[in-house]
Every structure is written in structure tokens, then in C-alpha cells.
Amino acid sequence: MIERTLVLVKPDGVYRALIGKSIAAFEDAGLKVIGIKMVKPDRSIVDKHYVADEEYLKSIGAKTINSYKKRGIEVKDTELQIGQRIRGYLFDYLTNKPVVAMVVEGNEAVANVKKITGATSPTDADRSSIRGMYSSDSYDLADAKKRAIKNMLHVSGDKADAAREVPLWFKESELVEYKRSDESMLYD
Ligand code: GDP
Ligand code: MG
Q1: Which pTM was predicted?
Q2: Is 188 domain-assigned?
Q3: Is 30 a pocket residue for ligand 1 (Cβ < 6 Å)?
């Protein structure tokens, strides 16, 4: 069913002039941009966006540990310690840098946007996803450089995240309802 989800083209996507290709990938799949702006996020919005919630931080840490385990590398830090460290990197990555924020609407928008975006680490991302096509960063390199993985995009992780993130970045008055010319072909 029709949903809305949040997309951020992160600073590496903007600096590498990949805003257009990112938008095109979503539009080509039949999804519609209903809000868009370029911002330099301050610390407070990054703080609210990447919540300091223990469960969320542990989930980031768990993904990291899993990826290292698969490659036979032992990790000493706990999930929470890793999550907290990465949250620090995310402030450096996004605060006061150019970011394009978008709300994307369409059928199963949350799942479709996630699929088109690809896995967190571009090295693991499907070749046909945006992260897989246009980036090549990895857990190892990002961790060695003590920075966030440069994966070009943030997209809402699930419907609950989308419901929280869309109003964090956009007022309802900044969202525009219109019909794409191919909507009846897409939906009827
Ligand atoms: P996403 O939903 O795929 O963006 O991934 P998460 O919500 O788990 O993590 C948020 C962001 O933190 C990612 O997009 C990366 O930029 C960064 N990140 C996640 N895991 C790691 C990691 O293990 N190491 C580093 N350096 N950055 C990470
Ligand atoms: Mg996420």
C-alpha cells in the first residue's frame, strides 16, 4: 500500500554529484518524490535522527560484529560500544555538511527504497543497488579510518522509523501531493 519514507543523500553523495542518479533510481522504480530540500543539518537534528536508543545502537553493533565474524575476525568490543562509537562518527559525517533530504512516496515505499538502496556496506550491497553501483566502501576501511561507512544514502529502516523520520525533516506543508502521469499504469 502507499507509504512515505525518508531518504537523505549524505554528503559523499552530494560531493560526488550523485544526487540526480539517486533520485532517478527511485523515480525509475515508480516511486514519487513529494518533498525535497538541501540542508546542512545541525547537531540537534542529527542527534534526533540517529537516536541514542540502546536497542538501535546494539543493532548497528550486531551488524558490524556479524560482518567481522563472517570473515573470521574476532571483535572484543560489545555491540553497544560499537554502536556508540559509530554514532559519534555519524555526527562527523553529517553535521554542517550538505545533505539532500527527500520524502519518497509509493507502493511499499519503505521496502522498495531499502531494496533499491542496498546493504549498509557498499562492498556487500547488490551490484544493481545504488550503494552497490556507485560506492565501494567497507566496514574495514571505514573502521580503520575512524569514520562512518560512506554509503551515500540514509533511508528509513522500517515503517516505524519512516513515521518518526519524515516529520523530523519535513513539515507537512513542505510535502506536495500531485499525480505522476504514469500513476494509472502503475496502480490501476
Ligand atoms: P543503514 O540503515 O544501512 O544506513 O545502517 P545503520 O542504521 O545500521 O547505520 C547507520 C550508518 O552508520 C550507516 O549508514 C553507516 O554510514 C554507519 N555505519 C554502520 N555500521 C558501521 C560500522 O560497522 N562501521 C562504521 N565505521 N560505520 C558504520
Ligand atoms: Mg538505519
Answers
A1: 0.96
A2: no
A3: no
